[in-house]
Amino acid sequence: MHRMKRKGHIQSILPVTLAALAWMPLAQAANWFALQGVSPPTAPLFGVSGFIEPSLYAQSGTEDGLYHQIPNINLVGPNLTQSTTAQILRARIMLRGNINHHISYFFGGEFGNNGFTNIRGKYQPGLIDGHFTFSYIPGARVEVGLIRAPSTEGAMQGFMSYNYVISPTVVTQLMNQTMYDSGKPYKPVPTLGGNYLVPGSDTLGINGFRYPGVMLFDWFRHGPWEFTYGAMVGMYGSVAAGNQSNSPMEAARLQLAYVLGGKGPFRSDIQGGIWYQHAQPLLDGQSYNMDRYGVDLQYLQGYMQPWGRQLRFEYIRGSGWIDAPAAFSNAPGLAAPLTNTQLYPGQENRAWGYMAEVGLFFSHHIEANLRYDYYNRLPNNPAQNRIFKTFAIGLQYHFTPLTKVMAGYYFRTLNVPHPNPVSASVANAVDNVFAMQAMIAF
User: Fold this and answer.
1) Which of 263, 274, 279, 294 is surrounded by the fewest CB atoms within 10 Å?
2) Signal peptide location in the record (predicted)?
3) C-alpha torsion 210→211→217→221, nearest 10
4) What is the pTM (predicted TM-score) of this model?
């Protein structure tokens, strides 16, 4: 990759930002497996870093035409009480270092207001990362603890790579599904196709793509070519909500990259990956299958350089356990299927989607981005089939490699191939969204 800054300019960066950069493994890291799993060889025993993301969301708050209620899709999560609001989306403190040349550790606490810290409808900060990595075996590093599972490239990225305030719908809905209290005696509803209704008081938040378990991974360089693998076994569920990680899961990813230059999270490369993830969530005393798999491609060239550019594409398919969030929050006169999550656990269920993104730096600091996101949920179930489409325009100002301000406008549509009065009314009410966010490293 290019040199991100001339020497004189680097010396002018704020010391606090340099301190944050010191704990990113820029010297040896090759990819996200390395960045999240291994500290730099020169890192001391103990180091602290972190970031905060103050965010602003603005949308019209359009009511549907049938019940005259604001659909949840027009409300800002995780609280779903307002359409226009400001909040601290993420606030994370991270501890990492090397115990010796072969053992490194990484722990991170999340204190922002998001799906991870919203458990049973209440705010609860928690440990979002917590693992040790053992590098004694050549070609097979071992990571143990609370791990970001190998899967789609979009789920593995670090905070400095987020290019939009609102995440891609297909990645979020298929790979970061809400956890549920497996100890509750839910029963399927025959009149709704046998799916379960889950009240909001029983939702345990999302897990941020992390699971407790063990992962083998490593990367191998031969000239500009780099091959990387990661394979994990663990438990599917929510650690933050207590003893809810009681179902097995497996995940694996293979990727091949042609490295164009540079190091760490800002390198230039052409990369492709293929991955698979399987879990067996438990509900009402029964275990269900949850399968996800996909491919992704990316081209990154020239971070924070004039005409630096990026191209990304991800394709994801899912089967088995798939949920459909509630159309509305609790309100008088609304039936339970409208205010409860509808969970479809059967193996016959399907969902798929893709995301395509382009980005271009106009200067060292200004970057523009475009993204199209498509998510087709439950095409096997005509009554519940929904197609989410989002076209996003983004603009970023990078102060340093880790601190920036983002603004984006999101054109959203919800298509219902087989509408009824309720689904048509909700679909017609979907708002566009304007959002801004500052990402500040410390």
Assistant:
1) 274
2) 1-29
3) -10
4) 0.89
